[in-house]
Amino acid sequence: MTKGRKPIPTALKLIQGTLRKERINKHEPDIKTKMPACPAWLNVEAKKEWKRLIKELNKYGIATGFDFIALATLCQMWGEYIEGAKVGEPVGAAHVTQMRLLLVEFGMTPSSRSKVEAVEVLEPDAYDPWNEFD
Fold first, then answer.
1. Do the beta carbons of residue 111 and residue 96 sit within 8 Å?
2. 19 within domain boundaries
3. Domain range for residue 91?
4. What is the pLDDT along the chain (134 residues), one digit of tens a residue?
5. CA distance 73 to 98
6. What pTM does this model have?
7. Domains in the chain: how many in total?
8. Less Cβ around it within 10 Å: N or C end of the chain?
9. Do 60 and 118 contact (CB within 8 A), yes or no?
């Protein structure tokens, strides 16, 4: 059994400008949950990164409450990377690879960002892109 390309979420297609009516998943969940507060269990460096990333991701409407685990994991991995570097104990290649994969999921690498056209986020519910296709 061959696997095709990983599906692109409809919201990302809208941002990229590649959304086509015939390719809309009518059953895709419309997630509009807010990101919870920074997890208390993150280390100091991870908390700094959480605060920075939430500000940036919210600016473009990228992160939702469903992304909590992935974003917390990414921040903790970054915190471990920084703390290890401070004491001369760098993390292994597998750690860096996993961190990179999470960065790509959020469009935080140059190549993953090149596929996205950033637009200013409107106030919640100010614009409903689905009305274009009714």
1. no
2. no
3. 33-112
4. 556 666 676 766 776 777 777 777 777 666 677 788 999 999 999 999 999 999 888 877 777 888 899 999 999 999 999 999 999 998 899 999 999 999 888 878 877 776 665 555 545 444 455 455 44
5. 10
6. 0.66
7. 1
8. N
9. yes
